[in-house]
């Protein structure tokens, strides 16, 4: 079978968000469960995020990355205690990749007034752009995708027969990170350069907005042993599970490998990923009797400790190895 005949399942979430008849919610729960079990990914309509919010978000991303590079560098996430702000093109290189990713990114997270827990909680870095053209739409969008990410977690719990009440602990002060991304045109003269090289997302749920028509995302299909191109279509979100979900569900949900090679001819590609991980101190809601009691914070520390330093108290509090 050619890969262009295989597409990710399309789930209409409105049956869960706003059920019209008996069985609507259950159908969505089953469709999400099956898609995440088979692919680790699905496409979503009926997600409840207004088109004008999506458009404003993409405009904000465009405005942000069009700032002069010297201005963007002043906002470097490497200088910020909460890892918020700007990541330059070429700053991320995975082990084994010949060249670093070509993408540039900008991180926004929880807006907590003071830096706590090694900067997992704390204030954002807002670029010097007009509030109405940047901060307001970005924050509105953050809240909408925060809500959608939480809803998907809820559906995943129900899919494994657990009650949604588990979300109270899990989503108390959840780590939710929004990543704005711009990919430059792909350079065929640089073999081995990706927009984002092959990876799995390390955490919980990813809610991805792509600029319509700017294709480039590819998902690894285990059965076919091939990369599956994913279309960037208007008003369709891509949802996927990260390693935390793969591990905590005992493999019932997959964390699938994916990559981005900008397919737009001589044009940049914009996207925005919101990662919903969960409360730093929360443990596995996908298996409440999991004896390991591993926390979200322990997984985050493990993922980022090579890049950033964390205080000992936090490491002990989340139960990460010293
Ligand atoms: O931009 C995309 O389409 C995907 C981005 C992605 O996989 C990531 O940031 O983890
Ligand atoms: Fe990813």
Protein architecture, described:
InterPro entries: DIOX_N (IPR026992), IPNS-like_FE2OG_OXY (IPR044861), IPNS-like_sf (IPR027443), Iron_ascorbate_oxido_reductase (IPR050231), Oxoglu/Fe-dep_dioxygenase_dom (IPR005123). Belongs to the iron/ascorbate-dependent oxidoreductase family. GO terms for molecular function: dioxygenase activity; metal ion binding. Helix content is 28%, strand content 20%. The protein is of the alpha+beta class. The strands form two sheets. An eight-stranded mixed sheet has the order 1-2-10-7-12-5-4-3. The chain has a four-stranded antiparallel sheet with strand order 6-11-8-9, with no helix packed on it. A hairpin with a 4-residue loop joins strand 8 (217-221) and strand 9 (226-229). Helix 2 (24-38) packs across helix 5 (135-159) and helix 3 packs across helix 5. The longest helix is centred in the middle third of the chain and has 25 residues, at 135-159. Bound molecules: 2-oxoglutaric acid and fe (ii) ion (FE2). 2-oxoglutaric acid binds next to strand 5, strand 7, strand 11 and strand 12.
Measured by DSSP, the beta-strand proportion falls in 15-25%
Listed once per kind, the bound small molecules are: 2-oxoglutaric acid, fe (ii) ion
Number of helices: 9
* SSE topology string: EHHEHHEEHHEEEEEEHEEHH
Kindly name the structural category.
Answer: alpha+beta
Low-pLDDT stretches are none
Number of strands: 12
Q: Whole-number radius of gyration?
A: 19 Å
The helix content, as a percent range, equals 25-40%
Q: Which of globular, elongated, flat, extended, rod-shaped describes the shape?
A: globular
Strand count, sense and barrel status of the largest sheet are: 8 strands, mixed
Multimeric state: single chain
Mean pLDDT: 95
Across the major sheet, the strand order is: 1-2-10-7-12-5-4-3
Through-space gap between termini: 49 Å
